[in-house]
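note to self: the first set is below, dont mix up w the second
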Amino acid sequence: MWRAYDPDRGWAPYVGDSPHTDHIHFSFSWDGALKKTSWWTGRPVNPDGSSSTGPVVPQLREYPVLRKGDTGKDVALVQKALGLPADGAFGQRTFWHVANFHQKQGLPVTGVVDKAMWQRLVDLNKVAPRGTMTKSAYAYRKTWIKMGSQGNAVKALQAKLGGLTGDGRFGPMTKAKVIEFQRSKRTTANGVVGPRTWALLLGLPAPQAPPHTVPPRGPPPRGRAVLDAGGQRTASTRTPTPSAAKRLPRTASTPRSARSNALTTGAEPAATATSTNHAILF
């Protein structure tokens, strides 16, 4: 089913009392918009416009309030939405799952399927809207909208802000209202509505903005620690340049004269210096 009044949903399976598998509805005039067609009145109309004597089509009413002990198709609808076997009997298991849904969604935990729970199920796309019900602002809590945006998300925003024409167009007046609200909540006032602004509008826990960090000034430190013979840190040093490395003292050296004597006599040259007690790591 594709709904012209809610195009953001796209194609979706129909859920309701009547599956509408044996007929289809079309409205090519303002009568449909003004609720004068058979879909709204429940009485078929002849091609010449006169009322038909055919049977009255039952109308889809608002979702009923359901409590423990109730039975029927609407109970089965709730059970299916909650991932339960849809036997249509509101028993103890259904009661606990309804109460758990209330707790998770921040609703009053009553175990009763009331109007607020039906609305939340609609907003979560668990059930289809019925009667005059439409999606609330909660359904768009993760949607980003800004100047120039259009659609049902903007309508929901305008209704939540109040004092605006709900035309679904994000214009200068809507942006001014958003900035005014953002300033009142001491958050970034840029006129862009994202998850944080939606949460503040709905009274939900607002996502925390990432902390602002100041990068350190100057280049990062160079070099490694200087360790002594026991592996203990003694100091820090910069990485020596090639020219500086040439000036580092040798840890062991043999005089040139000793090397010459070894070549002529065959004796092992004696070291005249020992290694120092520290090492430099790079």
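second set (the one i keep forgetting abt)
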Amino acid sequence: MPPGLSLTVGVGTDVALTRAYGLADVATARPMTPDTVGPTGSDSKAYTAVAALQLVERGVIGLDDPLDEHVRNPLGERSITLRDLLTHRSGLGTNMGNWDHLPPPPLADHLRQVLTEARSDAYGGTLLPFWAAPVGERYTYSNIGIALVGHLVELLNPDGVTFSEWVARHVFAPLGMASTVFPRAQHPDHVPAELLARRSTGYATLPGLRLALPPLYPGDWPAGSALSTPSDHTRFILALLNGGELDSGSILTPETAQQMITAQASGGTLTGPSTDASVGFVFNVFDGGEHPYIGHGGEYLWGWNHFTRGWTKDRVVLVISTNQYDLGDLGLSDRPSHAAARLVAEVVTAWVHGADPPPPAHPGVRPQLPRGTPGRRPSHHPPRHSHPTQRGVDHPDGGRSRGRRRLGPGGVRRGSPPGPPDRQPPPRQRDDHPPGTPRPRGRTPQEATRRPQPGRPSPQADSLITHHRHDSPATNQPEAPTTDSSRSG
């Protein structure tokens, strides 16, 4: 079996669906489960942003206070502010996170060294500048910038504790995120043994090649060193969509939570600014028409990929974690690098876009997920794969489901001998439509006489949900997810 995939769907204030497939560790055949812990990569940045905004709410620091005492951009006169850091507009250039095979030094020591050397770790510092622009001029995705935010939390928090302890007390504990930590390093010296035992093994992949990763640690760790499960991270995103709280506790006021998921400035991608993108506090903000959403992604080099999407009006959240990193198909905040994860994202997006009734509007009501969501196959569609990319999401490697054979008319397996008379499919109704001419839009004669079953969506609606596995008319294809987004490092 291949490396695995774990996913969670949240609706309202509840985690409504969890699924896991494949292996958390290939060598030992340890299965991926909903309780398997994995790196969130740059999805960790949202935890750091919330921690900083908590200090803003307490009056410890202002969003627009100058930070000259801590960092200074030499390319202009204006001071860097917390708002600039949270929207990637400080002028700091793009960097990879300052990775090493040894756990990093204390955060203050690491940042002092990095800011003094002023040399990007990307491509040996020869292609990307450490300072890319004057403050506020444009979007430049920066791991060092978010690491500075973590340093401010550690330096200024009223409890006088480390950054890791602050987020544990004030972000994870109120939301019941018992399987989430934000350590300096994912190492036995910094992570409880019980969580490390549940951590998946990461694999770098290329066609025909799969490599298990040795331990690697980012020096800019407040930008990407958290460990979590999709269920825990889903609770965190649901809280932000619900005014900063769940029944278990609160992390932000409704006003601050809304700021975080609302466009604050023009955004961009890892390669630079884009006029088509917007950024809130850390999150990418997408218009989405009637279904606006926020997104982010995370990649923990070079073995894990993490994906988050939260529909702000629909209050639906999708989180996907995989323990393989496709080196030939790097992910974005709106597009996972993993092929099976992309299929899952398309399925849930189709559901949110109206292929089935919307989720309940009242908090605390556990929904019945519609037919066609991952893990639930509608019974009235034959499971067919008519295109190389239309494969079952139950298999994270994108392979076909074993033992499934293509079905012919009436559900009879192709090449199978006819069954006994009482098991023969009913005769097809006559269709007087002239052969060789396009059929008008509308229902076929069979559909016109088919009586709907109570409580079941129409076949047309179900085909929207399951388009990745079934043949369905082009007019029934769901709206394609936007691909204009920022990759996370």
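remember for set 2: The domain at 5-355 is CATH 3.40.710.10 (Beta-lactamase).
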